[in-house]
């Protein structure tokens, strides 16, 4: 393993992105996401994603420099056209108006269109909670996941993220794929030569498999059976056609076998408890703390707890990157 | 089994509710929900619920006649105070303004406060889809469900419902408890003397059980492990404190051991694809049909398919009610 400080990681990621022609706003925004993933111990959303970003660029499937365009399209709706670039800049461009609308209207949504998405969703939910908002985020991906009762890929890994602001504490945030496992997780098993648990995927004939490559080439499964499958369909619909953007099947068709990152839309909903509750907001948000205490008080964990613990550790001691991955990234500096 | 037409069922339910002093708006609205549940083959949300309604009234835990009060509380927020009555009338009172706001603002929310909730959520989602809206609904219940990694009840069964309008077809709707099974389902197993599957509940010491009564007295489990548990927490927060209403633990405390229906809030979010997409809406909604075809085309089912099939059959041939339940209801006519 290679030990690096977070500053080292940021410098390396930015240098690679710059070297390959990303404009400075995209360099900053994409690097911030990758460093945040590595910092929080989300290995499958950290530096591991960088080679995929460059491969997507080389395949002509992401713009290195398109500037996002913001549309105030209805009193409670912001739309941002990412013009084929990574989603991060588009999110930052649309967020101020989303926050303003949530605060004035009570609830508002941000639809990002024509973006390339490779990151976790919590980096987009967390800044909204820092502004006192409750937030939800959704995005389709590539058609890799079979619906419950089926055997052929149709849904993306279709993550759902949720954030809740807490006074003087890190926000309550969850962010999970509606597939049983993230695709990156299965790929990390493949790289490590480890079998995957039963229930993550099936082969091309619909038979259960523990071989990561067989699952990647067959179909992934949703979490929680028909309920997870229903949620995957919902993400497909509300962050696809509802905002005028691609389904996971359409994204995969657009990909043309280049194995690039998914292309399409992202939906973010923000709600302002202050606007709903007025002077009573602080009292009610304080009551919510009993829910968290009820979880922690019986020895269970909050969804982002491991992430926040990893964050403290990484900020103090840095992170460790597998040597093979480090060398793969070094090679991108000269390629 | 007792055979009844849907008209017979409606007449019976209305007569019982009237006999116990519910005002006519509540008689109509509550009966409509119960008949719809029975009609759609949702046994645990049909006539089976009627004795519970009357028991809740007798325990003094629901108002038989409070008129809901509607507040236009922000440009995209409607609040309805149910004043302690069942949720149905409050929903009908708030729905027109919710629809109007969703159409003008793009996205809007309806918060129902201080309502008693015993029904499924799809009866509230379906009418929104009939008005061309995409809808989400959430409500906490009583603290019956342990968080993942814990053993003590904290969450309610905390259902999530989603509806998507389809041209010339019944809407795509799902509605499920974030618990592994609905509490009514476990109770129906108890009544039938049948064991429950492993994974539905645990005993007071946190050990897995297949005995329905042991699970009802211990803790129910969430579906899908830590992901279902995270969703249960979300429902607890957004349909509880975020709208100034009770958590499932607070609802159970309010219950004072009377085994009444849960008391608290319900959150409904409505989004108008027309407002987001304008002239392009029909084209994008048509693309969504490929998702449904992708599910059906591989032999999998849509979430509400069984319900719609049962509906057609019930409307033609009526329904069958277990004799013991029928007699329990007949007794309510003279008690």
UniProtKB/TrEMBL annotation, chains A, B:
Kindly state which reaction or reactions the protein catalyses: L-proline + NADP(+) = 1-pyrroline-2-carboxylate + NADPH + H(+); L-pipecolate + NADP(+) = Delta(1)-piperideine-2-carboxylate + NADPH + H(+)
Where are the coiled-coil regions?
A: none
Specify the enzyme's EC class, one word: oxidoreductase
Q: Name one GO biological process term.
A: proline metabolic process
GO MF terms here are: delta1-piperideine-2-carboxylate reductase activity; protein homodimerization activity; pyrroline-2-carboxylate reductase activity
* Gene3D superfamilies, sorted: 1.10.1530.10, Hypothetical oxidoreductase yiak, domain 2
EC number(s) stated in the UniProt entry for this protein: 1.5.1.21
Instruction: List the InterPro entries hit by this protein, alphabetically.
Output: Mal/L-sulf/L-lact_DH-like_ah, Mal/L-sulf/L-lact_DH-like_NADP, Mal/L-sulfo/L-lacto_DH-like_sf, Malate/L-lactate_DH-like
Q: Which UniProt keywords apply?
A: NADP, Oxidoreductase
Superkingdom to which the source organism belongs: Bacteria
- Family, as annotated: Belongs to the LDH2/MDH2 oxidoreductase family.
Under what name is this protein listed? Answer: Delta(1)-pyrroline-2-carboxylate/Delta(1)-piperideine-2-carboxylate reductase
Species of provenance:
Metapseudomonas lalkuanensis
């Amino acid at each position: 393993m290679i030990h690096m400080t977070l500053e080292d990681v940021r410098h390396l990621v930015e240098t690679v992105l710059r070297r390959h022609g990303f404009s400075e706003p995209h360099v900053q925004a994409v690097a911030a996401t990758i460093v945040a993933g590595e910092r929080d111990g989300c290995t499958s959303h950290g530096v591991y994603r960088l080679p995929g970003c460059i491969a997507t660029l080389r395949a002509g499937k992401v713009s290195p420099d398109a500037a996002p365009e913001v549309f105030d399209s209805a009193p409670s709706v912001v739309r941002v056209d990412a013009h084929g670039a990574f989603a991060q800049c588009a999110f930052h461009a649309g967020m101020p108006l989303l926050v303003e609308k949530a605060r004035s209207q009570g609830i508002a949504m941000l639809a990002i269109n024509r973006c390339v998405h490779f990151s976790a969703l919590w980096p987009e939910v967390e800044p909204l909670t820092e502004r006192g908002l409750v937030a939800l985020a959704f995005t389709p991906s590539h058609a890799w996941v079979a619906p419950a009762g089926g055997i052929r890929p149709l849904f993306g890994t279709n993550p759902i993220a949720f954030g809740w602001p807490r006074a003087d504490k890190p926000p309550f945030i969850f962010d999970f794929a509606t597939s049983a496992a993230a695709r990156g997780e299965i790929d990390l098993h493949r790289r490590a030569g480890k079998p995957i648990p039963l229930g993550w995927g099936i082969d091309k004939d619909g038979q259960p498999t523990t071989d990561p490559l067989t699952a990647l080439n067959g179909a992934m499964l949703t979490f929680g059976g028909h309920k997870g499958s229903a949620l995957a369909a919902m993400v497909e619909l509300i962050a696809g056609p509802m905002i005028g953007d691609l389904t996971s099947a359409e994204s995969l068709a657009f990909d043309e076998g280049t194995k690039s990152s998914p292309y399409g839309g992202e939906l973010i909903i923000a709600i302002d408890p202050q606007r709903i509750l007025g002077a009573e907001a602080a009292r009610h948000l304080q009551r919510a703390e009993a829910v968290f205490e009820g979880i922690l008080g019986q020895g269970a964990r909050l969804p982002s707890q491991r992430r926040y613990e990893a964050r403290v550790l990484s900020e103090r001691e840095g992170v460790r990157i597998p040597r093979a991955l480090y060398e793969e990234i070094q090679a991108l500096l000269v390629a």
